[in-house]
Amino acid sequence: MADISKFSIVTYERKPGQWRAAITPIRRSVSPPQTGTVLSIVTPHDLDSEVDAQSTAEKIIKKL
Fold first, then answer.
1. Residues near 34 by Cβ (< 8 Å), separated by ≥ 6?
2. Is the dihedral of CA 26, 2, 38, 43 positive or negative?
């Protein structure tokens, strides 16, 4: 289980009433990411509200 505090979650509205969230690990180093490094994950489906998108993102992080 990953620590939620080590990730940034940004919610956004793709279209009116269709929300998603982007999950990005918080990087402490200033070096550029290595090839093949996952920089972010986006929730797989549109959701009805910003709260639902945030909650789904938190569930994804907990599964990591």
1. none
2. negative
Q: Which segments within the chain are labelled E, that is strand?
A: 7-15, 18-25, 41-42
H or E element in which residue 50 lies:
helix 50-63
pLDDT in tens, 8-28: 999 999 999 999 999 998 877
pTM of the predicted protein model: 0.81
SS3 assignment, position 56: helix
**How is the chain split into domains, by residue range?**
4-63
DSSP 4: G
